[in-house]
Amino acid sequence: MNPQILIIDDEPNNFDVIEAQLLEEYYELSYASCGIKALQRLELFQPDVILLDVMMPDMNGVEVCQRIKSNPQWSHIPIVAVTALNSKEDMARCLEGGADDFICKPVSGIELRARIRSMLRIKQQYDTLQKQRDTLADILKLREEMSHMLVHDLRNPIACIIFAGELLKEQDQLSESSKTKVERIVDSGHRLQSLTNDLLVMAKLESGHLILHRQSVDICQLFEQTISDFETLAAQKQIRLIAEIPRIKKFVYLDANLFRRVLDNLLSNAIKFAPKNSQINCRVNYPQNEAFQVRMSLCDQGSGISKDIKQIIFNKYAVGTVVEGIEQIGLGLAFCKMIVEAHGGQIFVEDNQPQGAIFTLEI
C-alpha cells in the first residue's frame, strides 16, 4: 500500500502545486480545506504524513497541530508545517505547537520530497516498534495464561500427594525411617502448595485482577499467632522466638489471609537461615508522626546478607547464597514485597548488629 499523505490547506491551488511536485512519488494524496474538515477526515483514516498550512482562517495551523497531537490516536502522525512565515519566532511557534518539521513557501519540490521521505522513515520506525510491542504484549499474555493454567493444574496433584502422605503417616507398620521419609513428602507437598498459591496470587496482582479483602485486623494478635505456630519449627533448631509486642492493640485495615502469608514467609526464612542456638526478635511498634501506622521487624543473628544480594533479594526468582550450602530463591520475598506494596506499605532489609539481618515492613 502506497504511503498516504493528508494536505491541509485553505487554497486549492496550493494542493495542485504539491500534487504536481509529488506526482512521481506514488503517494496517495488526500485534501482538507480547513482544520475542522481535517479533524473530521482523521476520524475516518490515519495518514502516514500530514502537510499542514500554518496561515488558515477560523483555525490556524498551529491550533490544528495542537489538536492533532493532543489526541492519543493521532499524536504519532508526523506533521510538516508549510508556512510563509520565516522568522525564527514563527518557526519556533510551529515546533512548540507539535510540528515535527517545517518547510517555507514557496515550496521547493526537492526539499518537499526530502522532508516527506524523512517523516515517512520516522513513521515506519514507529509502526515497526508498535508491531513489536503488540507482539511482545501477545507473548506476555500467552505466558500469563500458561502460568495460570500450570498453577491451576498443579494444585490438584499436589493436594493428592499431601492427602496420600497423611494417610501413610497413620499406618502402624511403618518403620521409623519410612515415617521420616513420609514426613518429608508431606512437608514438601505443603511447600509446593504454598508456592503455587503464591504464584497464583502474584499473577493476579501483576495482571490487576487481585482483589484485597480488607478488614479491621488486630495486627499484634496476628503476629503473635504467627509466632506461636512457628515455635515448634524453631525449637527443632534450638532457636528462640522472642516476641516484643506492645500490649496496646492496633487495628489495621488489611487482607488478613494474604498478610498472614507474608508473615509466614518472613518468619520461615528467618528460621531457615538462622544458626542453631540463636534467637529471632519479632518486634512491633507504632511510629509517631510518620506515614505508616505499624512497623514490624524480624531480627535474626545469622551471617547477614551481602550488599549484592540485598539489591536483588525481593526480585522474582532471584537466587543467591545467604548461608553456605543453602540457596535462596527469592519468590517468597517477592511475594511479600508485592503484597505489602499492594497495601500501600513498604518492606526492606538492613544489617543487624553485631551480626544478622533485620527484615522490616511498614504499613
From TrEMBL:
A matching Pfam family: HisKA
Residues that bear 4-aspartylphosphate: 53
Catalytic reaction equation(s): ATP + protein L-histidine = ADP + protein N-phospho-L-histidine
The organism's place on the tree of life at top rank: Bacteria
Domain Histidine kinase, residue spans: 149-363
InterPro entries: CheY-like_superfamily, HATPase_C_sf, HATPase_dom, His_kinase_dom, HisK_dim/P_dom, HisK_dim/P_sf, Sig_transdc_His_kin-like_C, Sig_transdc_resp-reg_receiver
Domain Response regulatory, first and last residues per copy: 4-120
EC top class named in words: transferase
The enzyme's E.C. designation: 2.7.13.3
A single GO molecular function term of this UniProt record: phosphorelay sensor kinase activity
Keyword set, alphabetical order: Kinase, Phosphoprotein, Transferase, Two-component regulatory system
Protein name per its UniProtKB record: histidine kinase
